[in-house]
Each structure stands twice: as structure tokens, then as C-alpha cells.
Design goal:
Elements (H helix, E strand, L loop, with lengths): L9 H18 L6 E3 L5 H5 L1 E4 L3 H5 L12 E15 L2 E17 L5 E10 L5 E9 L4 E10 L4 E9 L13 E13 L3 E3 L5 E15 L2 E20 L2 E18 L4 E15 L4 E13 L25
Length: 316
């Protein structure tokens, strides 16, 4: 039960799938197979190697996200989620999302409009987002955000975010904060929200190192956020009050020379309590994102075709 992705509305879709899974399995009495909680090695999957910073990098780097040449960027995200974890076993759910971002100039010199469409493999549902944001990640104008699928639909009513990156150069172990607020409405035949409130996420970031991702140099930014959210939901004829606790950590691999996020690793640990029915549920997830262009594997991140997908040593 998470809102794990720090930048994207599609995290709410993962949350919706988990709530639906919990409702149908726990409340409707369906039997779903439990398996060992086991995540694949993200560094091996993405071809990540740690490296020592150059002298120029030690002096500080400027972190920005720019629109790519040609105005189109494609990415893929694979998420593994485990719900109802007990004794290191849980109900497993895999989500594979393919995203296309299209960019055009914004109303400010440092901004652009980003139109994004995300599809889920094995599902007809799509997520549409459109925001104007600066190259520091600040949302200056929210334009559109919605999700449609057979399970239900989301509508973003409002979305704000303070700058994700500092204004000036950043050195190793420098830290900073940002805040993101999203007001989301869920509309599903199965699940209805009662008196919904915005998602408020306060995150702390740190430049923790430098790496090579498939042969491409990157700065490594670690983001951590702890979130508590109360949800009032009606499932068929029954009402529930959930308190969801989530601990989220993300590692962003940013090619700061081009302003391109080339990979992300996001992990979440969550706990859900139903205060009325004294039900406790714990979950864990791992999401791996990489840019694909027209590729289908992380190895195509590489700037050269050397050993991009071979096992690598972990980042600290």
C-alpha cells in the first residue's frame, strides 16, 4: 500500500492495484498464493558500477533535467510488490509500465511542458499526465493527470512540487529537501473514497556518489521520505479506515552533462492498519526504471556496447 514513486502519478496506480488486491483477497475471501519475498539485484539488472569522482565532480556539479534532443524520451519501469507479508512470504504482484514523454517549450526560459503517456503491459489502462516544470523539477503549472483501466480510474485535481534540485553546484554529501503535494480522486465500481485528502510528501535528498550506468556516467542522488496517510474507503457495502505508513528510498542516476535521468531504483516498505477492524498489513516493493528509446532491456542504456548488463558492484 504505497505511494512510492516520488515524481509520478503512476505510483497512485500501483497503490490502487494493491488496495484492490488486499480487498479481494482479504475481504472477499479469495485465496492467492504466497511466495518468498525475493527481489532481483537492481545493480546487476541495470548494469550499474560505482566509480570514483573526477576532480571536477569533487568541486561540485549542477543537477538539472532537460528536454532531450528531438523532444521524445521513452522509459520502462518494472515493479515487484509483495502484500500481506508474514514470515518473509507475501502475495506477489508484478507491474510493467512503458512511458513516452513528449516535450515542448514552456512559458519560462527554464521550463518546458511535458506530456506523458504510461501504459501497463497486460492491461488496457493508460495514465496521461501533462505539467509545465522547470529544469530543477519544480511544477509551475499542472495541466492534466488521469488514469483509466478496467479496475477504475484516477483523476488528479491538483499537483504541486517545489524544486527538486538546488540552484547552484552540489558536492558529495550535500543534502537538501523538497515537497510534493498531490490531490488524487479514485473512482472505481469496487472502491470509493470517503473525504479524501491530498498526498503530502516531504523528501530529503543527498548526492551520495557517482556511477557508470551501462557505460554512461551519472551522479547518484539518494532521496528518502517517510509518509503517513489516512484513507477512508468503501468496498461494496463495507467501509474501512486505513492508516498507511510508508518508508520510501529512491536512487536516481542522473547524467548531469545532458540532464537525463537514465535509471532509478525505488524501494518501499509499508504498513497498513485498519483502526476499525484491527487488521495489519505489511508490504514491500522495488521499482527499476531505465530509459529505453526503442529498446527492451537495460543494456540499451549504454553509451558503448561493452558489458552493460553484466553483474556490477553495488553502490554504497
Amino acid at each position: 500500500m504505497t505511494t512510492q514513486n516520488l515524481y509520478r502519478f503512476k505510483a497512485k496506480s500501483a497503490w490502487m492495484f494493491l488496495v484492490f488486491l488486499w480487498m479481494t483477497a482479504g475481504c472477499a475471501g479469495l485465496s492467492l498464493k504466497r511466495v518468498d519475498v525475493n527481489f532481483e539485484n537492481p545493480y546487476q539488472k541495470l548494469g550499474i558500477t560505482e566509480r570514483e569522482p573526477t576532480e571536477a565532480e569533487k568541486a561540485g556539479v549542477v543537477l538539472r533535467i532537460h528536454a532531450p534532443p528531438g523532444g521524445v524520451l521513452r522509459s520502462r519501469e518494472e515493479t515487484t510488490l509483495y502484500a500481506q507479508i508474514k514470515n518473509n512470504q507475501g502475495i506477489k504482484l508484478n507491474l510493467v509500465q512503458n512511458r513516452i514523454d513528449q516535450f515542448c517549450p514552456g512559458g519560462r526560459q527554464d521550463s518546458y511542458i511535458m506530456h506523458s503517456e504510461t501504459s501497463f503491459e497486460g492491461s488496457d489502462g493508460t495514465i496521461l499526465e501533462e505539467v509545465e516544470q522547470t529544469d530543477r523539477g519544480e511544477i509551475v503549472c499542472f495541466l492534466k493527470g488521469l488514469h483509466r483501466s478496467k479496475i477504475g480510474k484516477f483523476q488528479i485535481e491538483s499537483w504541486t512540487r517545489t524544486p527538486v534540485f538546488p540552484d547552484g553546484p552540489v558536492k558529495l554529501q550535500d543534502s537538501w529537501e523538497y515537497e510534493e503535494i498531490t490531490d488524487v480522486r479514485l473512482d472505481s465500481f469496487w472502491i470509493q473514497q470517503k473525504n479524501p485528502s491530498p498526498y503530502i510528501l516531504k523528501a530529503t535528498c543527498e548526492l551520495i556518489g557517482f556511477a557508470s550506468v551501462g557505460g554512461r556516467p551519472a551522479a547518484v542522488i539518494k532521496t528518502h521520505a517517510a509518509q503517513t496517510k489516512e484513507e477512508r474507503l468503501k468496498f461494496l457495502f463495507k467501509e474501512f479506515v486505513f492508516t498507511i505508513y510508508a518508508d520510501i528510498e529512491e536512487r536516481m542516476y542522473l547524467d548531469y552533462s545532458t540532464g537525463t535521468v537514465i535509471a532509478k531504483i525505488t524501494t518501499t516498505k509499508s504498513r497498513m492498519m485498519d483502526r476499525h477492524h484491527k487488521i495489519v498489513d505489511t508490504g514491500q516493493s522495488q521499482s527499476l526504471l531505465w530509459i529505453t528509446e526503442s529498446a527492451q532491456s537495460p543494456g540499451d542504456l549504454k553509451a558503448s556496447s561493452s558489458n552493460a548488463s553484466s553483474p556490477k558492484s553495488k553502490m554504497p
